Amino acid sequence: MADHRLGFRSFDEETDSLSLEVMGELPDWLSGTLYRNGPGRFEVGDRTLTHWFDGFALLRRFAFRDGGVEYSSRFLDSDAYRATQDGELRYGEFGTVPSRSLFDRFRTLFGGAQTDNASITVRHRAGEHRAVTETAREVAFDPADLSTLGHRTGAVGATGTIAHDHYDGVQEEWVGLGTRLGRRSGYVLYRDPDDGAVEEIVRIERAEPAYVHSFALTDHYAVLTEHPLRTAPRRLLADRPYAESFRWYPGRETRFLVVDRRDGEVVAEPGVSPFFTFHHVDAFERGEELFVDLIAYEDHSIVPALSLSNLRSREPDVPAGELRRYRIDLETGRAEGRPIVEGGIEFPTIHYAEANLHPYRFCYGVGSETAFNDRLRKVDVEHGTDRVWESEGIHPGEALFVPRPDGEREDDGVLLSVALDVAEERSCVLVLDATEFEELARAYLPHVLPFDFHGTFDADGEEPVPSMS
Questions:
Q1: Does any domain span residue 270?
Q2: Is the Oxidoreductase keyword given for this protein (predicted)?
Q3: Could you give the C-alpha distances from 270 to 218, 226, 255, 258, 322, in angstroms and in order?
Q4: Is residue 465 part of a domain?
Q5: Distance CA 305, CA 377 (A)
Q6: Which of 169, 234, 243, 383 is packed most tightly, with the most Cβ within 10 A?
Q7: Residue 291 CB coordination number (10 Å)
Q8: Handedness of CA 124, 126, 129, 135 (dihedral sign)
Q9: Residue 299's domain is classified under what CATH number?
């Protein structure tokens, strides 16, 4: 099996402080630690999980110092993972449901018995590193050895949260979004200031909330993209996976709920032709207009397309996402969208510390042309052009931007991506010059890691800052 399917096999090894083989030359200024999160195991006893999102969290750590890379990996010691050691699937995951009673399903609906399989990304909050997923059960871990420290609560009054919240460096606060399912279902927007308590901004009630994976933030507004993939609490009581509790309504619009961050007022709800999105890229204001960039799909078919049965096939059928910009006119309450560049793209990243909430020029992402995730793309959003990096047999993951200290340009830095090399049957960390979009180095692991999702980079000598959209 010398193809992308190697990246969807279960992984059993845990590694501690292994020096990697480096081919090429790392920049002398690159000093810090890359943390990645994603699934590591897809089986429980004799049972195979259903969806890519269901795999049990494997933390990965890559320390860049003195021209070398040191690698560690460790499974997150969650309640969900510990149950698998006895061959038990105790908690419902995104696409896989355990055998459970109606009472257990009722408890899950109202926030109890939720999975803590926090496999989506890593965030730094309240002075500690946390693994997060789309439930309110965050899991803190030791950044030095990846050992699990315990559970943390992720939101105010929400039964589920999104993993992609935003940091506003001017206001010095995180802004997050949760979903509440129950008697009064809807969305919960909240702030988490650096020097204060978590505070609810607004609750927006919806009888059928949408599945929400991310949202957009500007200086004064939060923008929730509410597409017509909806659920109702009663559907979650059925013995079906969480993902299958949502229904796509092709006749309904996708709506942008524009919320004033200062007082929680919903100031606009413009509708557009239906589309689905996982990931927002950036958003910013110009006068009475908002611009929201995201990865759009014509419908929700990307969700079932990420099933393991499809991804483990030789030629998986995976819809391509489109980098699209929506302009929202707050005076007229109308919105319109257009593609920024042609070609499929996903896992978008930007120079987050500089560009988030502001006009920006460059977006980086993963593309699929002839095979699953077979290239990286750098898009100039101002000119609608792009550059492509690809290498035979290499399947890259999300590319995080790490800025050069005292760099003067938005793209002055490097991109870090954990990739699969099918010829070597090993994973490697790719290091690309972000300006020229050319490879600088590879650091090879002794084995194949399953494809991951998201992560963050902590530069040595600096406070951890967000590095992803």
A1: yes
A2: yes
A3: 17, 10, 6, 9, 21
A4: no
A5: 22
A6: 243
A7: 18
A8: negative
A9: 2.130.10
- Return the structure tokens found at 467: 């590095």
So what's the pLDDT on residue 206?
A: 93
- 102 DSSP 8-state letter: H
Amino acid identity at 303 = V
Q: Per residue in 189-230, pLDDT tens?
A: 999 999 888 999 999 999 999 999 999 999 999 999 999 999
What is the full DSSP assignment across 267-330? EE--EES--EEEEEEEEEEETTEEEEEEEEESSTTHHHHTBHHHHTSSS---PPPEEEEEEEET
CA–CA separation, 223 and 214 (whole Å): 10
What's the rounded Cα separation, in Å, for the pair 397 and 391? 13
Euclidean distance between CA atoms 349 and 347, whole angstroms: 7
Instruction: Answer for the pair 5, 372: CB distance below 8 angstroms, yes or no.
Output: no
Residues 289, 328 contacting (CB under 8 angstroms): yes
Q: CA of 191: how far to CAs of 62, 175, 199, in Å? A: 31, 4, 5
**Owner of token pair 């819809």:** 319
Q: From the centroid of its chain, how far is CA 91? A: 21
Inform me whether the pLDDT recorded for 2 exceeds 80: no
The answer to whether residues 34 and 416 touch, using CB atoms and an 8 Å cutoff, is yes
Q: How confident is the model at residue 235 (pLDDT cuts 50, 70, 90)?
A: confident
CA distance 434 to 416: 9
- DSSP category for residue 31: -
Report the domain count for the chain: 1
Kindly state whether residue 466 falls inside one of the protein's structural domains: no
pLDDT above 70 (res 417):
yes
Task: Domain of residue 54: give its range.
Answer: 4-459
The stretch 388-417 carries a mean pLDDT of 96
pTM: 0.94
Q: Closest Cα to residue 150, out of 165, 129, 133?
A: 129
The one-letter code for the residue type at 273 is S
